[in-house]
Amino acid sequence: GDPDAMQPLLGLLIKQKRLARNLSQESLCKGICVVSYLSKIETGQANPSPEIIDQLFRALGLAFERDEAFLNSCRLLLTDFFDRYFHEEPSQDIQEKLIQAGPRLENSELCLAYQLFLLYLCLLRSQREEALALLRPLSPLRESMFPEDAFLYEMARGVAAFSFEEKLEALYRAQRLQMCPPVALALGRLHYDSGRYQEALLHCAQGYHLSAQEGNVYAMRELSFLEGTCYANLFEHQLMLDS
Question: Most exposed of 4, 43, 120, 233 (fewest Cβ within 10 Å)?
Fold first, then answer.
């Protein structure tokens, strides 16, 4: 990503790790920078040099990961993992590689993407409470996220949230970020599960059109099945009214 755009996320990452170690701003930045500058870094209002970032991480007892070959390979793994998640394809091999790379990714510019990966692992394993626990610390980062990360965050909220209203709000925010078959399918399923079959059908039609344009056979199949189930329920409901 854009190095300047990464600064708010890196600042919040430094703050997260400082608080986890019960360190004050004064003790962390001693000999590196003044307290007011660290405060600006942590709130995303300053653009520190790589040297300052490295020094702050060393003061935290950590090394900031800068190996571009490693980071690029992990970017590809993360992209592949999320693609498989939304196609409901197995990803055990990728999961193992990313978990192994985790200690390095947690101290890199991919820290947020890795946290989102851990969140989606919980969703895959139907660990709702764990997913909600991972969502909470991501909430303050929401406004600093790149659109692709914000999309993943909102889609996860749309799955993990408890109320229909919160799920719907999250999925519509995801839709505004990226109009794509997974959002249409998630919205269709949400409305279907709530007995709102007409609304579900609208999302099925929209999603099928997008899927056909992309050649996304998986989404076309799932949306067709959901559409047929909606019509079956509407027909059954009409029969009950007529009897």
Answer: 4
Instruction: State pLDDT tens for residues 133-150.
Output: 999 888 888 887 889 999
- For residues 11 and 44, the answer to whether their CB atoms sit within 8 Å is yes
Asked if residue 55 lies in contact with residue 90, where contact means CB atoms within 8 angstroms, the answer is no
Rounded CA separation 50/14 (Å): 13
Q: What angle do CA 233, 208, 186 make, to 5 degrees?
A: 65
Question: In the predicted model, what is the mean pLDDT of the chain?
Answer: 91
Q: What b/e string do you get for 52-82 counting C-beta neighbours within 10 Å, with b at 16 or more? A: bbbbbbebbebebbeeeeebeebeebbebbb
Q: Which helix or strand (DSSP H or E) is residue 135 part of?
A: helix 128-138
Identity of residue 162: F
The pLDDT of 197-223, averaged and rounded, is 95
